[in-house]
């Protein structure tokens, strides 16, 4: 079976490609390398079951033959990261909505190829239910704050996928990923764990945005990718059909961002101070954060066995080790400051 992974040179996509190849699938990756990197795929070079195409999901001429030649599509390509979306909302909306529509349309046209779409827990918006169930309301902000454009773009992708399923019978499966972390995730676009670790390793202040009392759950990319492959197997095996379903996927072990910063300091043996930075200073606009985000994983567990193996300490140790071995991921002196400083200065 041949699997196309859009966004496969990214953090999650590259781990998924490795796992699928290990299981005997053929893997084709399409990635424009906007946030991903060929270095993430280094270990796969030379594997006869693997191929890489540099290009965008927005380019029909590039995407079309890849969809035609595969049996199933994992659609991961997206503009990610709150900071990059706040800076470039248009690019995010275009890739996340138009790119997703392109993947779905071509999958339908090429004989109804199944599509597994990675959505995000961000679609729950300001819904503060704990834990969040798939059927819970999507509460998005109506005020035009760029902060919510990623959530809206992922929600639009979900609506598109469900419309293709309901109206055209295209087999789709939607995964709402909660914070997924581990080696190869970059801190350049505002992801908290790689940012804290690289700051700690380079002796810069660990910058906690807001009060740090906001609570999150972090899942290892290995646990997440394992579940993604098991869900793919439900599509090709004889288990209960998962098409047309939305699944939360992540960890439900919570900790506060202050606790996370302390853990990073201890695990990296860092002398870095922990500095609190207001959202205004960090993001340069009226930024609303969500106090708690915990997934309800019951639905996922009705379909596959899912018992995350990696706790937060193990994840942090592994990720710190990765950044130690890849010093190019560490910020140059001074760049550990909130990433939007430059654009804010530009606006003044
Ligand atoms: N990591 C998380 O915690 C998390 C949480 C929720 C959802 N997700 C979703 O999971 C998916 C993978 O995210 P990730 O964390 O690996 O981020 P990532 O940035 O490492 O991966 C996204 C990949 O998509 C590629 N890409 C972007 N625009 C493209 C385009 N037009 N054409 C082709 N490729 C393009 C990037 O180069 C990158 O390799 C995304 O859809 C993201 O929204 C991730």
Report what the structure shows.
It is globular and about 55 Å long. The strands form four sheets. A seven-stranded parallel sheet has the order 3-2-1-4-5-6-11, sandwiched between helices. The chain has a two-stranded parallel ribbon with strand order 7-10. It is α/β, with parallel strands linked by helices and 348 residues long. It has helices spanning 11-22, 60-68, 82-87, 89-109, 149-168, 192-201, 221-236, 257-267, 279-283, 298-303, 312-325, 341-347; strands at 2-6, 26-31, 50-54, 72-75, 115-120, 172-177, 180-181, 206-209, 215-217, 219-220, 246-249, 254-256, 274-277. It has twelve helices and 13 strands. The termini are far apart. Strand 1, helix 1 (11-22) and strand 2 form a beta-alpha-beta unit. It has two domains: 2-181 and 220-249, Rossmann fold (3-Layer(aba) Sandwich); 192-215 and 252-292 and 309-347, UDP-galactose 4-epimerase, domain 1. Mean pLDDT is 90; it is low at 332-348. Nicotinamide-adenine-dinucleotide binds at residues 6-7, 9-13, 30-36, 56-58, 76-80, 95, 99, 118, 120, 177, 179-180.
Question: Mean pLDDT, as a whole number?
Answer: 90
CATH architecture of the largest domain: 3-Layer(aba) Sandwich
CATH classification, class level of the largest domain: Alpha Beta
Compounds present?
A: nicotinamide-adenine-dinucleotide
Query: Helical residue percent?
Result: 25-40%
Number of helices: 12
Task: Find the CATH superfamily of the largest domain.
Answer: NAD(P)-binding Rossmann-like Domain
Helix and strand content put the structural class at alpha/beta
Across the major sheet, the strand order is 3-2-1-4-5-6-11
Query: Runs with pLDDT <50, length 5+?
Result: 332-348
Q: What is the alpha-carbon Rg in Å?
A: 19 Å
The structural domain count equals: 2
Overall body shape: globular
Number of E-state strands: 13
What is the end-to-end distance? 54 Å
Order of secondary-structure elements? EHEEHEHHEHEEHEEEHEEHEHHHH
Tell me about the biggest sheet? 7 strands, parallel
Write the CATH fold name of the largest domain.
Rossmann fold
């Amino acid at each position: 079976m041949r699997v196309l992974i859009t966004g496969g040179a990214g953090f999650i996509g590259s781990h998924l490609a490795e796992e699928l190849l290990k299981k005997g699938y053929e893997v084709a990756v399409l990635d424009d390398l906007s946030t991903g990197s060929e270095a993430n795929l280094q270990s796969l070079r030379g594997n006869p079951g693997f191929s890489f195409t540099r290009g965008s999901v927005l380019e029909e001429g590039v995407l079309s033959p890849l969809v035609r030649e595969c049996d199933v599509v994992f659609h991961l390509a997206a503009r990610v990261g709150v900071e990059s979306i706040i800076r470039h909302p248009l690019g995010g909306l275009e890739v996340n909505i138009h790119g997703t529509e392109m993947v779905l349309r071509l999958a339908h046209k090429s004989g109804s190829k199944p599509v597994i779409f990675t959505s995000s827990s961000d679609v729950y918006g300001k819904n503060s239910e704990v834990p969040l169930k798939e059927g819970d309301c999507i509460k998005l902000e109506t005020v035009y704050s760029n902060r919510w454009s990623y959530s809206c773009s992922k929600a639009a992708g979900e609506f598109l996928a469900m419309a293709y399923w309901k109206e055209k019978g295209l087999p789709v499966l939607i995964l709402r990923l909660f914070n997924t972390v581990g080696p190869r995730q970059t801190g350049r676009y505002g992801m908290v764990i790689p940012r804290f670790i690289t700051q700690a390793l380079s002796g810069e202040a660990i910058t906690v945005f807001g009060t740090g009392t906001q609570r999150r759950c972090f899942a290892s990319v290995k646990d997440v990718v394992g579940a993604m492959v098991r869900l793919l197997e439900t599509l090709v095996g004889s288990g209960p059909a998962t098409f047309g379903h939305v699944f939360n996927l992540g960890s439900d072990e919570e900790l506060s961002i202050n606790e996370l910063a302390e853990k990073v300091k201890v695990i990296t043996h860092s002398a870095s101070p922990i500095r609190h930075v207001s959202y205004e200073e960090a993001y340069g606009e009226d930024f609303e954060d969500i106090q708690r985000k915990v997934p309800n994983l019951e639905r996922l567990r009705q379909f596959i066995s899912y018992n995350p193996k990696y706790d937060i300490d193990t994840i942090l140790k592994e990720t710190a080790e990765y950044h130690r071995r890849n010093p190019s991921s560490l910020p140059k002196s001074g760049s550990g400051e909130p990433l939007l400083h430059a654009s804010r200065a530009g606006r003044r």
